Amino acid sequence: MIIRKSEREIEKIAGAGVLVAETIAHVGSLLRPGITTDELDAVAGDYIRERGGIPTSAETSRISSSERPSGRRLSTAIFLRTRSL
Question: Cα torsion for 64, 82, 26, 39, to the nearest 10°?
Answer without folding.
Answer: -30
